[in-house]
Amino acid sequence: MKTSHQGLKRVYFATIYSMKGLRSVWLHEAAFRQEVMVSIPLITLTFWLNVTSGDQMIMIASLFLILIAELFNSAVEAVVDRISDEFHELSGRAKDIGSAAVFITILLTAFIWTWILV
């Protein structure tokens, strides 16, 4: 699907499509909603912690990385489900790898927060 939009019009439509994607993932992916609901209080908490502004930004960025990984994972799952609802080893592998990416990002975030706070 090639678009003919250029310049600010392209940016406008890209923003519309991005908002549509965020709405879709919010409506259809419980994991994304849960990660957002955990991230919001943790981001708020960083303003009360005795950490440098640089450490605070790293802590917040690590939470956003989880959300980004979940967006990619959800995209992979949607494409795999679109292709077929039958079990296929490669489909399962793709979904498992996407899930692993989210898991590794969560571990990274836990490491970063532990490193900074301890």
Automatic annotation (TrEMBL):
It is an enzyme of class 2 (transferase). It catalyses: a 1,2-diacyl-sn-glycerol + ATP = a 1,2-diacyl-sn-glycero-3-phosphate + ADP + H(+). It is a multi-pass membrane protein. The active site is at E70. It holds the Pfam family DAGK_prokar. The keyword ATP-binding applies. Belongs to the bacterial diacylglycerol kinase family. This is Diacylglycerol kinase. It comes from Vibrio gazogenes.
